[in-house]
Amino acid sequence: MASALLLAQAGGQDAVEKFANATSSGVALGAIYALLALGLVLIYKATQVLNFAHGALAALGAFFAAYLATVLNFPGRYVDFLPLTFQWVLSAVTAVLVAAAVGLVLERLAIRPMIGEPLFSVVMITIALDIVIRTITDDLVGTTPRPLGDPWGANHLEFGPVTIAQTEVATLVVTIVTLIGISLFFRSRYGVAMRATAFDQEAAMAQGISAGRIFALAWAIGAGLAAAAGIFSSLYPRSSLGVSGSTAFFAFRALPAIVIGGLDSITGAVLGGFIVGLAENYAGAYLVGETWSFLGVGFAGVMPYIVMLLVLIVRPYGLFGTEEIRRV
Amino acid sequence: MRARPRLFVSYGSEMALLPTWTQKIAALVFLALLALIPFGVIPGLGFLGDSDWLKILSRVAIYAIGALGLHILSGLAGQVSLGHAFFLGIGAYTAVVLGGESGRTLLGYSLPMWVWLPAAGIIAALVGAVIAPTAVRVRGIYLAIVTLGLVFIGEWIFRSAVSVTGGAQAGREFPELVFRFWKEEEPFLDFTADGPWFGINMTGEAKTYLLLLVFTVLTIIVAKNIQRTRIGRAFMSIRDRDVAAEVMGVADARHKLLAFALSSAVAGMSGALLGAFLGRLVPEQFSLLMSVQFVAILLIGGVGTVTGTLLGSVFVVVLPRLVQDFTSLLASTVESGTGLVSTVAGIFVSTAADDPGIVSTLPGTSPGLNVFQFNLVLYGLLLIGFLIFEPLGLYGIWIRVRNYWKAWPFTY
Description:
The structure holds 2 protein chains of 2 kinds. Chain A is mostly helical. Chain A is about 70% helix and about 0% strand. Chain A has a domain at about 20-245. Chain A has helices spanning about 1-45, 55-70, 85-110, 120-140, 165-185, 190-200, 200-205, 210-235, 250-260, 265-285, 300-315, and strands spanning about 155-160, 160-165. The radius of gyration of chain A is 21 Å and the shape is globular. By secondary structure, chain B is mainly alpha-helical. Chain B has a domain at about 50-285. Chain B has helices spanning about 10-15, 20-35, 50-75, 85-100, 115-135, 140-160, 160-165, 205-225, 230-240, 240-245, 250-280, 290-300, 305-335, 340-350, 370-390, 395-405; strands at about 170-175, 180, 190, 195, 200, 280, 350, 360, 370. The longest helix of chain B is centred in the last third of the chain and has 31 residues, at about 305-335. The chains are: A mainly alpha, B mainly alpha.
């Protein structure tokens, strides 16, 4: 009797621990999805284009970070008096800036000429961009994952039964800072201009806003956010070896996140990101073993899409999306 | 009166599949040329009768069938779908269960082709009809993402259902392209073995090609006919303005469901043929890239036209081969020659481990992209180029050329 109680208690302890670990890991994954979703929503809001090349840009940004930090040691070699963590952060920021520049170029070369073209064609342009960038990134990265040389490695913090990797804390911090930054940006001069352009392009142009500049800005910020997300997705999960071919596929699972939240809602994107991240991790933690063997392998990976389908059946425009008004 | 082009005295004659005599004759001649390809008798194009080119042309035929399926959904009914590969997969695995051999862990009933091919279409159509109610609730970009999700969910199903698909990275043998009445030993018609047919000696590749050509022509006729029926016009009205179509009494949801089912049926049969043609397929084949290929076929060829869809299929399937030939040509120029051409080619191609270049002919990790990667990059770039500079696709180019010669020697 007593031993049974003890066993039950131990089981309960295990269950709490399992749940807590799945939750903390899910929050970290959710933060990555939220970061990816923020970039996607920003570009969508400003330009009405859904960027299917987001994952490829994320992988490219992560590669830049890896290359800058581990091979070139830039800008660390000029500021070697700074602590190593700070040097790595500087490399990562440089990578984000380079990715933003890439975003600018892409917008000018491939997206700008497509203004006013049908949706089908613009979607296809971004998919084609994805193919091109992803192939080149795969080649640059090589066949083995490339380590990012981040200062955190596999270090983790322990709160009782819960272990949280330092990279996960960093991810969460960066996501929150970015979210605040984006919210502030939308209150700034350019942010207001972007909102106006998103609302009504012609009216915005009549007010003297350069729509082209807004588009370029949105793509630059979007690509930068993609790079930041790419860096953190190559650090996830804890034992990850760095940027590899699969980094780009993170963004495809962020697409359900923005659909759940509603394509044009920043709040929705962040919330959707966390919902998807948690759902994926809970599926990975609980829907395994003998009972669930009929689900096969890799069910956690499709969990985001299943959640998305369920949400869409109830709310076809996502949780926070604006319903499209169809005029006759 | 008779000789004036574009003058139709009855509605029926305008709606005819081939409205003018010129078109009738041109279509017949073209069909005859296609049928003669495997015999290598066409001057200048004899090389198409080689077995490796016949294989490429057979693949063109299968992709054309699949693309015509997408044409019904996206080209006519205007529903953006990135989930076409999923329906090809459903068809392929229906065929393999019904027509394939059973194994220790594998399901298979060894039924003849006249069972598994239509069944592949029917099952895929049913799956399409089941999914359609969710899909018709969302529009535009949301639909693109929902169908994208379908591909990922489908890939997971195909990987998990080991007894049907053979499992991830393993795959299984598909039924052969042979015609049996029932399970007799000797097939009535064998489309894969070499040997004489009606007194003419033919290779297996030639027979496969001719069979697929027949299937493609049948699909073209079906697709063309859908376009000029009540259903086809309903599809097009939904594509052009769905609210207006509804006001005019076109049942929106019902026709979208029908479009999904029809498109899936054609896709399913195309998938079954693809499996039978390749002999072995892994579940990873039915990926996003395959869906993208079909969308690319439509966009490169020209959305909404059967001719464009066919042109696009030829372009997308033949392109990798051309890139491969081009790269090896460049490599041989670099190795053999000197002078300007060879130097320019040398910038693009690296033939040694320490030689920088965009493409590398060496296997494994070497500077530059390998031929397969170069293929993908070029494919993406061409797609972007086409969409930016020629939004109407190959069909648009054809229309421009035709209009130029129509008025020649005047400019308009």
